Amino acid sequence: MEQAITLDDDATPLNEAGSPFDIWRAIFGNAWLLGAVLAIVSSLLESVGLIFQKKAQYKCMGDNVAPTDPKPSRLQVMRKGAFWLGVILYLLSSPVNMLAQKYAPETTVLPLNACIVVVNALLSFVVLYERFTQSDVFASVVCIFGAVAINTAMSQTLPGQLDNFPVQEVLQISNDLLTNPGFTIYMMAWLVLFAMCVYVVTFVSMQSAAKPFAVPMLVGLLSALFHFMSKLMITLVMRSSDPEVWSDPVTMKVIAFTTVLYILYVWSMVEGLQQLSSRFFVPAMFVACQVLTATQDLLFFRAWEAMTQKDISVFVVASLVSLVGVAFISPEQRVNASPDASGLNTPLLSPRTDAVRLHQNVLNIMDEYKIRQPTSPDAVGLATIDMSIPVTNWWRVFPILICIAMVSLPVVLWCTDRLFAMFTVLTLFAGYQGWKLGMHIALFAYVGTKKMAHFDNADFSALYKAEMKDPKTRGASFPRWEDVYHFVVLPNYKEDVEVLRLAIKSIAASG
To answer: What residues form the membrane-spanning segments (predicted)?
Structure first.
């Protein structure tokens, strides 16, 4: 194919879809918007499916979720209903994503698939109790913006599906796959990477630094090639009424090869997720799939000919930045076990019990919030800081201006017929408000409640004695257990003094 393929757009313009408040009519009346919504739904199904599969593994592990603890067998995990629910949801995401590409171009669908990284991070933190560092969060954000930059720089002429191609041309494309110079070069590189990943996954131990990156790369290789072959298969199946489709033997070859690729892709995904943390595996798999999918489409359809030198540079740099960003996400399974699976089922431990091992989740939570600090030999005196900072006139007017702008800006954009900009502004504002005033409060309150549940049955006296016996944690300036003062923070808001006095007496009487 000498020229880049031009995607026909039969979508209904947004300004002809009715009232701006008629959301459903706007979505179903516009092909591009429908494809975007389906892409987001596909990402949600995929991320939730992966979380359910990982949750099944953590349930089997119980309180033994340390990186050095043995992982449950494949059969143990498969006996959990959550595992099969996750597999079903994950399998549903593929047809939904293919349907999204029927209505919207790949340059819309692929960046929206980055929702899987956002949803996975939230659910890994809330449902799986995986611990994130600032490096993990920053690297995940880099992966998301890198994927958006990759697809922004790509040629907008890439087809989502090949519905507008004549049957003869689709058959010719299928027969001439390996005669396409660009695709041949890509397949040679694909085979080399595939062989390297298979070797590392099969013969290299998990302690090696290469294996955590080879596993998601293998999944990305299979996913990207399946993504491409599924285009051909769906197009041929949709033209099955044409006798030329089944008379050509390449049709059955494409269907068989795509089916084998899909089975290998799903199997490698399930296996890879069991070996690595969801915090690392999902972004790494997503970035590998995005870069490879974009590269193979650019080479096969020769869409790079329609890209400027600036677009090619942005594409290459964004791909490299995304791949490097994955290296800053820790693949280690840093997990706080569910409080229900905690071994601290009694407030008093036997002297023979390994208190540090049983309190590992408690210590992890303390270290996460930097609660354990070394005692300074030269303590600074108590300082009082005045928090009554005066507010200037500008900061008093600022929230009023923001409220006016959030109402007037969408109205101005609507009146000037800039509907896409209006849709973008409202989406960003609704997402920010939904997170800051809704999900943020609920998620962190839920996680905080679960973390505090680990402290309910903790025997801090036994933990203190165990750490004093360990030369790594014993400090010369540590106070004796008998000298430790326990205090209670009693918040109040305009409470009556008598009520506070009764509360303090109650706490004192409790011992």
So the answer is: 31-52, 81-98, 110-129, 136-154, 183-201, 213-238, 250-268, 280-300, 312-329, 394-414, 420-447
Residue tagged 């919504």 (tokens): 37
Rounded Cα distance, 456 and 140, in Å: 33
Residue where the block lists tokens 């340059």 = 107
Is the pLDDT score of 5 beyond 50?
no
Residues whose CB is less than 8 angstroms from the CB of residue 510 and which lie 6 or more positions away in sequence, other chains included: none
CA angle 448, 84, 285 (to 5 degrees): 70
Residue identified by tokens 């757009």 is 9
Contact 170, 236 (CB under 8 A): yes
Q: Is the pLDDT of residue 14 over 50?
A: no
Does this model's pTM top 0.85?
A: no
Neighbours of 32 (CB within 10 A): 17
Q: Are 132 and 125 in contact (CB under 8 A)?
A: yes
In whole angstroms, give the CA distance from residue 265 to residue 271.
10
The answer for residues whose C-beta is within 8 angstroms of residue 125's C-beta and 6 or more apart is 132, 443, 447
Q: Residue 427 corresponds to which amino acid?
A: T
pLDDT score at 7: 41
Is 335 in a helix, a strand, or coil? strand
Cα–Cα distance measured from residue 466 to residue 486, given in angstroms and rounded to the nearest whole number: 20
CA–CA separation, 479 vs 468, rounded Å? 10
DSSP 444-463: HHHHHHHHHHTTTT--HHHH
CB 467 within 8 A of CB 356: yes
pLDDT digits (tens, 9 = 90+) for 18-29: 444 466 776 677
Q: What is the 3-state secondary structure (H, E, C) of 261-317?
A: HHHHHHHHHHHHHHHCCHHHHHHHHHHHHHHHHHHHHHHHCCHHHHCCHHHHHHHHH
Indicate the SS3 state at residue 130.
Answer: strand
Is the per-residue pLDDT at 321 higher than 50?
Answer: yes
